[in-house]
Amino acid sequence: MKFLLSVSRLIDAVSELIGKLAMWLILAATLISAGNAIVRKIFNVSSNGLLEIQWYLFAAVFMLGAGFAFLRNAHVRIDFISSKFSARGRNWVDVFGILVFLFPLCYVVGTLGFPLFERAWTTGEMSSNSGGLIRWPVYGLIPLGFTLLAAQGISELIKRFAFLTGNGPDVLAHEGPSDEELLAQQLLEEEEQERLKQEQQLKGAN
Where is average pLDDT lowest: 47-61, 108-122, 190-204? Predict the structure, then answer.
């Protein structure tokens, strides 16, 4: 288990590094988008290449950041259901989800996406738009992104089994309410404020 946990830490470090890189890609996409809009407004000049690089950067953030989101436990969860389970129950649900859903999905999409990348690489496929970009980099994000996500899935699976066997902490444990619980609390508070406001208006009218 110690060796597996060291493998898990290595995968986590790679996901953390790639996730931080993806954050910079968001900034790059924002700057390119703003610059393209300003040039178009002032000089009435635009470029399909600049438009497409924004799409490429967005695709890179989405595909490369999936493993990072899994590492940070920032992906969508149905917390109002899983919160009713015990710590072991939540971890077993994750084990089931990783084995039955995540790994098959990564395998299918990765194997279907690789031929697209390979064909674009060998043929030098270009965008059909005038001044557009080569296609293989964005196609390559598909198998790469799902490979990184599968790798993070392996890391998370190791951590789940480490907890279930008493060899590690519960990485699903969190202090304080979840985002969904905070949102529900905020909605209740707003509803209560609106009710009090209506009562005050009724009293004023009487």
Answer: 190-204
Residue 193, classified by CB atoms within 10 Å of its CB into exposed (0-12), middle (13-18) or buried (19+), is exposed
Q: What does the block give as tokens for 152? A: 């993070």
Per the listing, tokens 């202090």 go with: 175
CA 181 – CA 189 distance, rounded (Å): 12
Contacts of 178 (CB under 8 A, 6+ apart): 77, 79, 83
pLDDT band at 179 (very low <50, low <70, confident <90, very high): low
> Which of 55, 71, 54 has the alpha carbon at shortest distance from 18?
71
Average pLDDT, the chain: 85
Within 13 Å and on the Cβ side, how many CA atoms surround 139? Answer: 21
Cβ distance 127 to 52 under 8 Å? yes
Q: State the pLDDT at residue 87.
A: 82
Q: Rounded to whole angstroms, what are the CA distances from 139 to 25, 119, 161, 190? A: 17, 10, 34, 46
Greater confidence, 179 or 97?
A: 97
The answer to whether residues 172 and 87 touch, using CB atoms and an 8 Å cutoff, is yes
The mean pLDDT of 16-37, rounded to a whole number, is 89
Query: Does residue 144 surpass a pLDDT of 60?
Result: yes
Minimal CA–CA distance to 50: which of 19, 65, 29? Answer: 29
Among residues 112, 19, 111, the alpha carbon closest in space to that of 74 is found at 19
Cα–Cα distance for residue pair 49/140, rounded to 1 Å? 18
